[in-house]
Amino acid sequence: MYDLNLMIIFAHVVNEQSFSGAARKLNVSRSSVSKSVAKLEQALGASLLNRNTRHLSLTEVGAAFFDYCTRIGYEADEAHKMIDNLNTQPRGVLKIVASVAFGTLHIAPAVGDFLRRYPELDIDMTITDRVVDLAEEGYDVAISVTSDLPQALVARKLAPIRRRLCATPAYFEEFGIPQSPDELVKHNCLDYIHSGERGLWRFTGPAGEVSVSVSGKLRINDDEALSQVVLSGFGIALLPTFIIGKDLQAKRLRSVLSEYIPTKQQVYALYMPKRNLPIKIRAFVDFLVERFGAEPYWDRE
Predict the structure, then answer these.
(1) Looking at residues 120-139, what average pLDDT do you find?
(2) Residue 154 burial (CB < 10 Å; 0-12/13-18/19+)?
(3) What's the rounded Cα separation, in Å, for the pair 65 and 48?
(4) CA 282, chain centre distance (Å)
(5) CB-based contacts of 27: which residues, under 8 Å, 6+ apart?
(6) Which of 50, 63, 110, 153 could make a disulfide contact with 58, Cβ separation 3.0–4.6 Å?
(7) pLDDT tens track for 231-277
(8) Are 202 and 211 in contact (CB under 8 A)?
(9) Residue 15's pLDDT is what?
(10) 148-170 mean pLDDT
(11) Hey, what's the torsion of the CAs at 84, 85, 91, 95, to 10 degrees?
(12) pTM to 2 decimals?
């Protein structure tokens, strides 16, 4: 195969009608251009240029070969433009994976707005709570609620995950409002068991760490389902505000013991470390950071 760079240099020589003109165009020395053309002629086994002291002219072989070199130069320029466009405007397919509750409630509604902003993008989205290997499964970004960050990935914080101890106003009217975590033993505490610590609720209070053993009539591994049980007035639970924010704002639920803060988590965008991060990944993560902000909309009064 012939060196494509030599072919492009030859095309410049013909277009500029001199070795010196091509050298100026390419910002190299005249001797370098002359040697490149000679090397190409040697590889082809044919003369491409008729040389004299005044001007250059194409041989019959050179004229035919020049057409191909011109097309190659044009295609090379177009390839560079394409790369430049890809690096400045998000396009193509963005493959993302998000945890079930947060992905359903907050990522899915954001996707439409994101695609309206970047119409040359498509998104393939998977909703799952299983651990995904981004490299092996070909995902660009994972949206994960966690406190245990994988060391092999870049993690960018999108929003804090806050949990609130809450129940309906009717529940508190019937069973009373706990004044301290110790009083939770008197209540029907509905337990989210996905974390694996069944019946143990942890808080940070004015005096430091507090752990309370609780019991109740229900243990469940899904926060959204748990919120529906709490909304029925059946018990009290620790629920993330990204699920119950609207219920707190509408007074359907009431938060208590606000000075006792459950263990915090964060929602992160996770992606593979890359020297040049693709613009589509950067645009998506920046969009989510902008959308959620330091005080996410679900936590605003």
Answers:
(1) 92
(2) middle
(3) 8
(4) 6
(5) none
(6) 63
(7) 999 999 999 999 999 999 999 999 999 898 887 789 999 999 887 78
(8) yes
(9) 83
(10) 90
(11) 10
(12) 0.67
Q: Residue 182 carries which DSSP code?
A: G
pLDDT level of residue 293 (50, 70, 90 thresholds): confident
Please list, in sequence order, all residues whose beta carbon lies within 8 angstroms of the beta carbon of residue 246, skipping any fewer than 6 positions away: 298
Least Cα distance to 97 among 149, 72, 133 occurs for 133
Model confidence at 75: pLDDT above 80: no
Q: How many residues are given for the chain?
A: 301
User: Helix count (H) and strand count (E) of the chain?
Assistant: 11, 15
The single-letter code of the amino acid at 63 is A
Q: Edge-to-edge strand order for the sheet containing 237-240? A: 237-240, 163-167, 254-256
Per the CB < 8 A criterion, the answer to whether 287 and 234 are in contact is no
pLDDT band at residue 86 under the 50/70/90 scheme: low
Q: How far apart are CA 58 and CA 47, in angstroms?
A: 9
Q: Are 120 and 257 in contact, with CB atoms under 8 Å apart?
A: no
